[in-house]
Queue: 4 jobs
Job 1
Amino acid sequence: MASSTDRPSVPAIPFREAVRTWFLISLQTFGGPAGQIAVMQRTLVDDKRWIGQRRFLHAMNYCMLLPGPEAQQLATYVGWLLHGTRGGLVAGGFFVLPGVVALLVLSAVYVGYGDTLAVTALFAGLAPAVLAIVAQAVGRVGKRALTDPALVALAVAAFLALTLLAVPFPVVVLGAGAVGWLLGRHRPAAVAEPATDDGPPPVIPDDALHAERPSGRRTLRVLVTGLVAWGVPIAVAALLTGTGSVFTEQGLFFSGAAVVTFGGAYAVLAYVAQQAVQVYGWLAPGEMVRGLALAETTPGPLIMVVQFVAFVGAYRAPGDLDPWAAAVLASLLVTWVTFVPSFLFVLLGAPYMERLRGNRSLSAALTGITAAVVGVIANLAVYFAVHTLFDGSTRREWGPLQLELPDLTEPRWVPVAVAVVAAVLIFRLRWSVLRTLGVCALLGLAAGLAGLPVG
């Protein structure tokens, strides 16, 4: 028989109330993972007190360790914590659905009208604004994660490894986890967990274990179900359209990206941008930035930009299908193979992570990974700044160093000006992400109508 510590000692939250709450959260998740985590922190920890601060940070650090969008995985984890598997599926699903619908519509608008002056000018205003938003994310995540000089040094090292040495993301993440573990052994104060928050006791106490115990039978059931749900759509696409079709290529590529790209959405985007532009040719570097700008205007994870990539790529290489039908099918397929692994990783690992919450070595490793994520986000900011603010860049190599340097003689003055305005609105006036994007889009439109170069 399970002991009293195996389940919360307070009444469970009504499932209907949880569904309503997750839906309302999904409509507020603008501004990338930093903003999305802040929404969940405010709603679940500060206002409703469903879980405590330490429980929330433990779940967040575990999701940072996983490949894929950490905010959506965090929602899935907390949903599972509250209501088991159905709670995780509802929380994670609601986190994605509004963005899927919105970005599908925006992708169609881009493909249908992207060559017109008005749309080009609007995107010329949106893309530079994204730079200020990413910079804000660096500051927000850094403030939360870099609580010790050693963690600051770890974030800087991650940035340099990605920017100068082109070290793969998984290597950076694993290295950061190892450094965090070493800090936990030799400088435990650097990676110490925060004290319990001062609010009223949460519904799920910090020291209560989840009722769903880890077991080999449960693990096998979840694994088989997840792999079947993940793989069958790709197999059907390959059977119906051929192994060389854009559907099969995108399904396989984004399935692989879902398991090898660590550090959350910002880390994924840098890798996806490189492969989608340089290897597969699904879209141009400037279009990747525009896709990110679209994703910033919709609720949900920023990784939804992969839906835009799939839509544009399939529209331009539809095979025997109508281009519009191919674009919609490809975008839905890519969305599916991108997020099914996120559910699978969380539902597989959450029961084990609950039992390991008191393991100081594991907590220290997760803290190191969270610090490295700050460097990952900063690396993405540099990548998009080069492709947004300048017309060209060159790749320079000095020994092991590989630098992609912008051509400073060819700045794009309209995007530079809009980026400055966005920075003032975000950092000085503290405007919201959506409001800032709207103003910057109007500035780009005004520049285009005035005859200024915006392309």
Job 2
Amino acid sequence: MRLFTLFVFPIITVGIFCILFPATAIGDITEVDDLKREINLPVPAKRFVSLAPNITELLFHIGAGGNIVGADEFSNYPDEAKRITRVNNHALVNYELILSLQPDLVFAWSSGNGYEIVQRLRKLGLTVFVVEVTKLSQIPKLLKKLGRLTDKTSESNRVAASFYKKLQSLIELHKNKKKVKTFYQIWDDPIMTLNGEHLISDVIKICGGVNIFATSTPLVPRVNIETIMKFDPEVILSSGAQERLVSWKKSWSRWKNITAVKSGHLYLIPPDLLQRPTNRTLDGADYMCKYLDQYRAFGS
């Protein structure tokens, strides 16, 4: 892409030029991604690939979805995202297809796509911006970065401000509430959960909960029922449709000495709301806070 060399114009001409053209169209754009790598673009990206559904959703939310030329197979929100060319899934990436789409920028998810995929894309000469959100408070800043990279600054600033305002209200509402021991299950066999570095753990904290496996390693630890019983969660959460609730509760019914099981405080949250760090994560947080409040109200 061509860089504008303003120094060859007379001063008056430069002044007129700056009025007629937005500032983002002249000069380099520099942002630091979540791997602390500096990303430089001569002008905002007009063609980009999203390798994760959460990134696709965020780009649509700031009005940049129409410029996504390739996306992963799970990018299903909003409906327009379903029509984008598929370039990857959780295990495989079609590098040749991505190159053929000639993107100005590729957006990747660090823990979702992994280091090897990001490095391969960079070796192919592609510019890659890597996202890794671990706290709700990071989402407004990310939205603004995405806006600057895609020439959607005003839209992203508006969306970020709205997100921040709602988040602060949620934090204020729950900051002094009684702590609730919480277990979040992401897999059944083996039983798997999330440690304190994951975004979902941050949501638990905001709602006044305590992730009983916050200090565990790695990010997604395998745990056994004996340890769960030892920590004795007061609320057990997972993701899924309500049709799954009966069978899921039945699988836990064997462990009636766990407070959450004994008192019936087992709840499901719609899967896309918490497992994708997006604007809708606040909706997932509303679910979680409501469920922890139900325990506070009715206890055991």
Job 3
Amino acid sequence: MRIRAAVLEQFGEPLKVTDLELAPPRSGEVLVRLVACGVCHTDMYSASGVDPSGYAPTVLGHEGAGVVEALGPDVKDLAVGDHVVTLFSPQCRECEHCRSERTNLCTAIRAQQNLGYLPDGTTRLSRDGQPVRHFMGTSTFATHTVMPEIALARVNPQAPLEAACLFACGLSTGIGAATSTAQVHEGSTVVVFGAGMVGLGAVVGARLQRAARIICVDLSEERLRMARHHGATDTWLGGEDTVERVLEETDGMGADYTIEATGLVAVMRQAVEAARMGWGLATMCGVAGKGETLDVIPRLLITGRRIAGSSFGGLKGRDQVPKLVDRYLAGEIDVDAFISHRITLEQVNEGFELMHRQDGIRSVISFT
């Protein structure tokens, strides 16, 4: 079938919105008609060429939501008409990792997915007979996409898909960092570094876990106002004295939990140094630049602090994303407040520019 898609032709160049061919789904795959898609920093990061694992040409986009239109053979759990959220972090429910409670990193299709292919090592996207690779196994900057069933979460059809799409990446990553990776305890003190989509999600997650004090640190007054709306009890402008201030506010001990959501290694170090002696946990969500390293003083670890990495918030997507969407419908998560711009597919490069200027929290592409 003929589709419209935003293609990364060359790194560092604007995406080109053009027509492509999309082949029907094969075994275990599903055709999804996209209704909405968030424009995420990861898409811009890959388009820039900084991502060492990037490739082109490819159809970017991974924060999508839509409706199932066709099924390939052997699809077990989805039906035509289901509302779904795309998952760059799949859940096969069968591999060793999926059967373990210790990780959410499914290994079933990871190797081919990282190379831009579907599980059988081929693509469904093409142009003039030449293959175009998939991005993160999703490629949601398009009117339609074909994906493995194990990379789709069926959600309540009452949820508006322009809101549900944010659970495909940024919002779930932040919420899960607090609820699943860190498992914030009720009554604790949490410091969130960064008030973008992921950081604000972490604020929401800490609130849902009933943290007593949630301190959000950012350089933007506007984003800090958003943080307070979503549950932060304290909002601070970031600076070199942030660690010292955390220690002063916690009787010299540090925060029970710190969550980093900036991708800046200097801020990652602050998150470690601001964690409490004895049991403080510093959770890293941000993606650092190519070749960058985190410099940690070993004494901080010897005295009980821990560091954890968090991919997709530690969530098992098919099982847990639908539950988060239900909490949105129940009024526990104000997803609508995160949507700052509504754009068309043809305006996708404008979405990148808005992100570069830090104008708003999330631009959402509407395909309707």
Job 4
Amino acid sequence: MENQLTNKSDISYPPTVDKRSQIRGLIAASTGTIVEYYDFTIYAYLAVVVAPLFFPGDDPTASLLASLAVFASAYLMRPIGGIFFGKVGDRSGRKRVLLLSVLLMGASSLVMALLPTYDTAGILAPIILVAARLAQGFSAGGELGGAMTYAYEIAGPRRKGLAMSVVFLGTFGGFALAAICVGTVSTVLSPSEMTSWGWRIPFLLGIPLLILSLWSRARIDDTPAYVEEVRDGTVKKSPLMELLRTQYASVLRSIGFAIPSSACMYIVLTYMGIHLVRENNLGTTEVAWISAGVISLITILMPVYGLIVDRFGAFQCNAFGVAACILLIFPVLHFTATGNRPVAVGSFLAFGLAMALVTVSAATVMPTLFGPSTRVTGLALGNNLSTVLTGGTAAYVSTWLIRETGNPISPGLFVAAACTLGIIALFSMKRPKDAHSIVR
């Protein structure tokens, strides 16, 4: 069982980073993830609007499925992007990954904002759309692994959970901003204006965020862990081959840890809004605001989850959170398909809060599976392969399950299966008595 928290030095790195640099580094990591996930998610919130513009047809469900398939296609590029950016991060530094990934995401989103529709460009329109989404997926493949590695390596030994929660504050903040932006634009504009040109505005509004993120990330230093690797000459020429040769079990465990987090996260962030529109007959604008409110509350509470994980231990918190998601998903899907708005919103929020605990606790454990010479690549593989399996497919599979079964709670089977894999990964890990508080 290689590389499983076998040494305290694998958990906290000397020399320590001063508080000012820690704060500046965590802000840089989180602002970049805001940009990445704002740009990456805008498409999901606009899927219902975009579908007929790029995939016209007589069957609205078929058009929506085609649009969701494009959304999912970006996830196929994430492992490739993860390998590329993982090598950059492990060989050339964490800072370089943070800069390159956010720059590529911003450029891809600008292309999407200026896309011609099917009526204007014919088949070329969906082809360009797919290409832009693939570029976004490639970029996202490097972002989270780089940001998690950077935050983990600059955080104090007893604040790893808090550091990871700040990274995911940026992730959920990006989703929340996307929902708020779409809700605002669709409220101000008429449906015809939204379909004609209004859908482009949210993509364009990501440009100022991109500039802010680049400025923030350009001001940070690389992590002490990477600096020591360079100084000691232990930087690996091929981090991926090193992982596959000596740490393959750790890669599998990281995927297992990330699968419940990914499945539950994307049910909340991408599918639940579709569920409320299609099963509860709520308006697109109303659902955008509901999603914005729920995700904003989760975002605000992220540091609280980080403190909880640091206090009670990531393993215990992860087990509790995964069990809660399994118990909640079927009643949540039932209540969000009823006509009672307060109950539907409350159910949505309850599942989102359980999901957040799973996310922060899993993210706190995963960096400990890898040494500094392979950490960016290892985290990128774990996060991206799990996202391909259960994240990018969450909305598509959920919509397909309901169409095939006619049962609005059938997506719960998808979530339950993902969480079961997470439990298997959790209990496959050895937890040494002398390790950091994540294994209390």
